[in-house]
Structure formats: C-alpha cells, structure tokens
Amino acid sequence: MAQGFLSLEDAAGLLRSGGVLVLGTDTLPGLHCRADDEKAVDRIMAMKGRAAGHSFGVIAGSAEQAKLVSGPLDERAAAYCRRCWPGPFSLILPASGSLCTKVASETGTVAVRVPAVTSLRTLLLEVGFPLVSTSANLTGNAPHATLAGAYLEFGHCIDGVWQPSEIKTDERPKKIAIPSSLIDLSCWPPKVLRKGSQDPPPAD
C-alpha cells in the first residue's frame, strides 16, 4: 500500500531497500525501482502485466552513475552522451552485468537517461544506483500523464509517491508530459528511434 507523498530522504531509503515508487520526472511520471533489484523489477512487471523479454529504460543521476549500468563506450559515443545529458534523451548503450537481467534487452543493450530535473538527479545519487523508469500503465494502455492518474491505478500496490520540487506535474500542459527521445548509440551516426519534446543534438 502506498505511503503517499514522500520526502526525498524517505523515497531514497525505500528505493535502496527494494521499494517500488511512482516518481514524477521531466517527461512522464512512472514506476521506478533499483535497476539491479530483481524482486523489485518483477513487482513492476506484475503491476504492468508485462511479459518477460521486454527491456526497461533506466535513469541515472549523472553520466558517471550511468557507467554503473553501461558497458565501455568509445570517446565519440561518450562525448555524445555528454551533449545529451542531462535532458530528455534516452540513449541505447551496451548493458553492463550489474543490471538485473530482465532490464537489459535481448541484444545486450539498455536505454539510459540522465533527467534534467535537479532534485530527481539528487534522489538518484542518494539511492546510489540507477533506477528502472517505466511508464505508469498496464501494458497496451496509454501511459498516465499525471501523478494523480498513476496513483489512482497503482496506489494499492506501490510503496509511495515522490514528486520533484521543481515540477507540478498535474498542473503543467499535457503536451509537455511526453516520453523522452530514444536514440540508438549502437551505430554511428546515432539513429533516432523515437522523437520526444526536443530535437537531439547533431552527431559530430
């Protein structure tokens, strides 16, 4: 049962100990847990009615923290990450072995984003490990654009809700609450698989 709106410290503690939270982000609000916690990832899969074999996106508090879930990058790819982060860009990178196996794709990659919201990055650094970040919806349904909608659907089976102090999710125009751009960095030049709210930086 959700504990309601949490402080940053309480949210970080619950996530460190295996909790599943609804978090507001700079794109869509979503379901979150540590990306190396298999039991918590299984909970999210069950909540969403999601079958095995589908990868999850991950958010990190910094480019340095993102290295915990990605394999080695060449300087060209690393430089592109620095141009995209923090910001609404999820980059497909080689996955490291520290991830829960159900988070990475079958091809050994993971989509990683460093959010633009300062307090969300602070939370991620407090947790100490990147988080699974997936839209708050049953598989096949439209994602909730507001924390209120996410709470109504999942409040009975999550451990709490946290909202960044910079964002009033339920007051902003819905056109802002759209997914991040998805950019494949396994090839060069990078390939945009999904366009989000901002145009991605050009490849040098």
Protein model, in words:
By secondary structure, the protein is an alpha/beta fold. The chain is 25% helix and 18% strand. Strands 7-1-2-6-3-5-4-8-9 form a 9-stranded mixed sheet, with helices on both faces. Helix 1 (8-16) runs parallel beside helix 5 (118-127). The termini are far apart. 44% of the residues are buried. Residues 171-176 have low confidence and may be disordered.
Task: Give a quick set of tags describing it.
single chain; 204 residues; alpha/beta; 9-stranded mixed β-sheet; 6 helices; 18% strand; globular
Roughly what fraction of the amino acids lie in strands? 15-25%
The run of helices and strands is HEEHEHHEEHEHEEE
How would the global form be characterised? globular
Low-confidence stretches: 171-176
Strand arrangement across the biggest beta sheet = 7-1-2-6-3-5-4-8-9
Report the biggest beta sheet as strand number plus sense, adding barrel if it closes.
Answer: 9 strands, mixed
**Averaging pLDDT over every residue, what do you get?**
90
Quickly count the helices: 6
Based on helices, strands and strand pairing, what is the structural class? alpha/beta
Number of strands: 9
What's the gyration radius in Å? 16 Å
The percentage helix is 25-40%
Short description:
The protein contains six helices and nine strands. It has 204 residues and is α/β, with parallel strands linked by helices. Strands 7-1-2-6-3-5-4-8-9 form a nine-stranded mixed beta sheet, sandwiched between helices.
Describe the secondary structure blueprint for this structure.
Elements: H1 8-16, E1 21-23, E2 30-34, H2 38-48, E3 57-59, H3 63-66, H4 75-84, E4 89-94, E5 109-113, H5 118-127, E6 131-135, H6 147-154, E7 161-162, E8 181-184, E9 191-194
Parallel strand pairs: 1-7, 3-5, 4-8
Antiparallel strand pairs: 1-2, 2-6, 3-6, 4-5, 8-9
Helix pairs in contact: 1-5
